[in-house]
């Protein structure tokens, strides 16, 4: 039997040309990643100066719409926008009309009436950023949608890795823990594939999704071969009672927790935060000189500046463009 | 067991069409005269008798379709569909008869409620409608409905469609009791502890996108269980919306060894795979979910060899505001009455994957046989339940408004071949385009 032509791609009538969004790492090319990391580096240099604010996005409105709690991501998006002189408006679901049962589409339409240039959205459900992109005229940046994607996290991790290790291509990263519920792991796998990083997934059987295109193993010893160990958070809030993904957290920690004993000297450790110290990561590891966790947070600011700049200007930033923006 | 509003029997002559009734063994260019809604003559040339003459040169005249699986949303969600709008959609899709599922609000689980729906159908239904009643009260899976009186009131079959009968013991009792009614049980096969929280087929696409998986085995273990119970008790079962290769294999084996079981497949499971979910379009979200290519090919093979006897749309209308939400928050289900033939003709028949005759049989005689309904046929003396198809004419889905009150079609915006030009249901002309 030959395969028939599927109707995918044919599902929707052709609309206006697509706006520039960052919804998924799957939409990026290697060139896009290189450009974004390059832009981030330029911004990092500007942050070294005494006056850290750039006039680049003056007059633009950036709206942060957060339906899930967040410290790192929401604060760094807000600060990134402010460093670029954009106006910012942050709406959190608690205390907003969402509490009164307003649908995401209606909230997006309401806030869209202010003509925001960018909507940064975090939402517990897969596909929420796509819905906002369809419902409004804004450029949309996905700050995490359910278990699907967290593209700026993947980009900031690439940035931190390159800054610390001097290269990306040819690195080997072991991703350890709850891969099943992790949007970070999914985004990282796609980003690693783009830049030539080898990934190995390590964790309990029920937390390693079947059919994910990656090397997977339940054996924690596998982390020894890696240049970097990327530790995922045990996402208790995503695990319904009685699901029995692992028997107990204690057993998880004993088998898969990252302790100094399980690491080689000089092996780097990353974690997207927030950490459960003593569960997936030993505090001695988290606070060791080989931990890149603080660098990840710092990278988050410049990478998010680069993403906001990139979706709005639609092109490479280069030093000249930056200089011109500064003059303006 | 089927109801329709009172309509004048047609007096028409159809000339020049290729008359195609695979069960009657007819395939020739013939003329058909219908007197007062009954087929009076089928010959190379018939007298017009002052009837209206329809020039059907280049068209195909076939038995009209029967859909064994439709959600009319009445009572309870008349904003999504009514008996009038759902049957108008059916007429536009070439159907002469449809069967409505009982998962309404309230659930169709009592004789008085069935009686009132029958009255509505007698007033509003454009095509013939039959009703399935629930297996368990409120479809809660706890206590059986009064199947005897429901059958006497006109229930065509019994089903808890939308939710599975989770308890094997209760399923056994249902099979035992349904035997007094001589009506089949139409089964939504899903093991809830395996499908729990799942939105998308558990496979590569769900893994990459992060969706909780709804594995094939959640369906196939339930199919195996119910076939085993049917073998033990001897009751008739019909497996609704088959989606997994393993379920199809189980059904084939059971039928070969004498179990009285039948099955149906939907156009979307026959055409799409879980790859379509990458669009995150809520209009490709349904239960059971779209599965892998090997599952789709198994369904197609079973449709060809007759293991699957019926195409069913599982027409499931949803309000726009309920579907325009993130994929995970959207309800399961898509519409299908107005697109089923064209979708399968375009994607299966035209590329040479399924003979036209087989498709026509599975959309008409097959489902009629399963549920003991009058078989639509091109034969003198039969009531006119006919469809006139233009296989050459393309159309764009959604360009003209749907007759259905809902528009949650997985085919929105796509171009299909095959247009329904005329539908005769219960002897009356119910659709023309």
Describe the 3D structure:
Chain A is built from ten helices and nine strands. Chain A has helices at 30-47, 72-83, 104-112, 128-135, 151-165, 183-195, 249-256, 283-286, 293-313, 318-327; strands at residues 61-66, 87-92, 118-123, 139-145, 172-176, 198-202, 215-217, 228-231, 268-270. Chain A has a five-stranded parallel beta sheet, with helices on one face. Chain A has a four-stranded parallel beta sheet with strand order 2-1-3-4, sandwiched between helices. In chain A, helix 1 (30-47) packs across helix 5 (151-165), helix 5 (151-165) packs across helix 6 (183-195) and helix 5 (151-165) crosses helix 9 (293-313). The longest helix of chain B is centred in the middle third of the chain and has 18 residues, at 216-233. Chain B is globular. The model of chain B has no long low-confidence stretch (mean pLDDT 97).
SSE map:
The complex is a heterodimer of chains A (328) and B (433).
Chain A: H1 30-47, E1 61-66, H2 72-83, E2 87-92, H3 104-112, E3 118-123, H4 128-135, E4 139-145, H5 151-165, E5 172-176, H6 183-195, E6 198-202, E7 215-217, E8 228-231, H7 249-256, E9 268-270, H8 283-286, H9 293-313, H10 318-327
Parallel strand pairs in A: 1-2, 1-3, 3-4, 5-6, 5-8, 6-7, 8-9
Helix pairs in contact in A: 1-5, 1-9, 2-9, 3-4, 5-6, 5-9
Chain B: E1 12-15, E2 18-21, E3 26-29, E4 31-35, E5 38-43, E6 52-55, E7 60-63, E8 65-70, H1 83-92, E9 95-100, H2 111-124, E10 128-133, H3 147-153, E11 157-159, H4 168-178, E12 185-187, H5 192-195, E13 200-201, H6 204-209, E14 213-214, H7 216-233, E15 237-239, H8 245-256, E16 261-265, H9 267-271, H10 293-305, E17 310-311, H11 320-323, H12 340-349, H13 356-362, H14 365-370, E18 386-396, E19 415-425, E20 428-432
Parallel strand pairs in B: 1-6, 2-7, 8-9, 9-10, 10-11, 11-12, 12-15, 13-14, 15-16, 16-17
Antiparallel strand pairs in B: 1-4, 2-3, 4-5, 7-18, 18-19, 19-20
Helix pairs in contact in B: 4-7, 7-8, 8-10
């Amino acid at each position: 039997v030959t395969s028939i032509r599927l109707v995918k791609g044919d599902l929707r009538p052709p609309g206006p040309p697509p706006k520039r969004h960052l919804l998924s790492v799957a939409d990026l090319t290697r060139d896009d990643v290189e450009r974004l990391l390059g832009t981030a580096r330029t911004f990092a240099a500007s942050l070294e100066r005494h006056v850290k604010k750039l006039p680049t996005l003056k007059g633009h409105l950036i709206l942060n719409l957060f339906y899930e709690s967040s410290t790192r991501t929401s604060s760094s998006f807000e600060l990134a926008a402010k460093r670029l002189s954009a106006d910012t408006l942050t709406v959190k679901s608690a205390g907003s009309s969402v509490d009164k049962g307003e649908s995401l589409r209606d909230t997006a339409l309401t806030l869209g009436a202010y003509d925001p240039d960018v909507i940064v959205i975090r939402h517990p459900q897969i596909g929420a950023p796509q819905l906002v992109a369809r419902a409004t005229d804004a450029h949309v940046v996905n700050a995490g949608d359910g278990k699907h994607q967290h593209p700026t996290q993947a980009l900031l991790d690439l940035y931190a890795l390159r800054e610390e290790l001097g290269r990306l291509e040819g690195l080997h990263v072991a991703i350890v823990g709850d891969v099943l519920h992790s949007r970070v792991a999914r985004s990282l796998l796609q980003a690693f594939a783009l830049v030539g990083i080898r990934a190995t997934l390590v964790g309990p059987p029920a937390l390693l999704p079947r059919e994910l295109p990656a090397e997977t193993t339940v054996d924690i010893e596998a982390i020894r071969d890696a240049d970097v160990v990327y530790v995922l958070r045990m996402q208790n809030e995503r695990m319904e009672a009685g699901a029995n993904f692992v028997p107990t957290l204690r057993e998880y920690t004993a088998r898969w927790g990252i302790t100094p004993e399980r690491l080689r000297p000089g092996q780097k450790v990353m974690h997207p935060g927030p950490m459960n110290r003593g569960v997936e990561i030993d505090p001695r590891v988290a606070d060791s000189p080989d931990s890149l966790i603080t660098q990840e947070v710092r990278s988050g600011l410049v990478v998010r500046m680069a993403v906001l700049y990139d979706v709005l200007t639609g092109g490479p930033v280069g030093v000249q463009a930056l200089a011109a923006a500064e003059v303006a | 067991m089927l109801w329709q509003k009172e309509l004048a029997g047609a007096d028409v002559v159809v000339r020049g069409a290729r008359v195609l009734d695979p069960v009657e063994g007819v395939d020739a260019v013939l003329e058909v005269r219908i007197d007062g809604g009954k087929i009076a003559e089928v010959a190379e040339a018939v007298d017009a008798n002052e009837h209206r003459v329809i020039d059907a040169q280049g068209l195909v005249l076939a038995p009209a379709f029967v859909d064994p699986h439709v959600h009319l949303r009445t009572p309870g969600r008349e904003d999504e569909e009514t008996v009038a709008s759902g049957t108008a959609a059916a007429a536009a899709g070439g159907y002469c008869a449809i069967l409505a599922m009982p998962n309404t609000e309230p659930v169709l689980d009592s004789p008085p409620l069935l009686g009132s729906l029958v009255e509505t159908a007698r007033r509003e239904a454009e095509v013939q409608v039959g009703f399935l009643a629930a297996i368990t009260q409120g479809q809660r899976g706890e206590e059986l409905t009064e199947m005897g009186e429901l059958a006497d009131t006109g229930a065509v079959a019994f089903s808890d469609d939308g939710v599975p009968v989770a308890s094997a013991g209760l399923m056994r009792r249902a099979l035992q009791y349904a035997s007094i009614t001589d009506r089949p049980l139409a089964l939504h096969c899903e093991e809830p502890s395996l499908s729990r929280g799942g939105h998308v087929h558990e496979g590569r696409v769900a893994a990459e996108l992060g969706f909780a998986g709804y594995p094939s085995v959640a369906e196939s273990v339930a199919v195996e269980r119910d076939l085993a119970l049917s073998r033990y008790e001897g009751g008739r079962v019909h497996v609704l919306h088959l989606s997994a290769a393993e379920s199809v294999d189980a059904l084939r084996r059971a039928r070969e060894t004498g179990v009285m079981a039948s099955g149906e497949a939907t156009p979307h499971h026959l055409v799409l795979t879980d790859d379509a979910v990458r669009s995150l379009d809520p209009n490709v979200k349904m239960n059971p979910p779209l599965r892998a290519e090997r599952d789709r090919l198994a369904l197609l093979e079973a449709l060809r060899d007759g293991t699957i006897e019926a195409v069913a749309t599982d027409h499931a209308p949803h309000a726009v505001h309920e579907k325009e939400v993130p994929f995970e928050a959207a309800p399961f289900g898509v519409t299908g009455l107005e697109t089923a033939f064209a979708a399968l003709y375009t994607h299966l028949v035209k590329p040479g994957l399924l003979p036209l005759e087989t498709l026509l049989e599975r959309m008409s005689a097959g489902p009629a046989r399963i549920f003991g309904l009058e078989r639509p046929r091109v034969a003198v003396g039969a009531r006119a339940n006919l469809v006139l198809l233009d296989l050459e004419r393309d159309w764009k889905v959604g360009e003209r408004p749907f007759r259905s009150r809902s528009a949650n079609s997985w085919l929105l915006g796509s171009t299909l071949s095959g247009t329904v030009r005329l539908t005769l249901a219960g002897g009356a002309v119910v659709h023309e385009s």
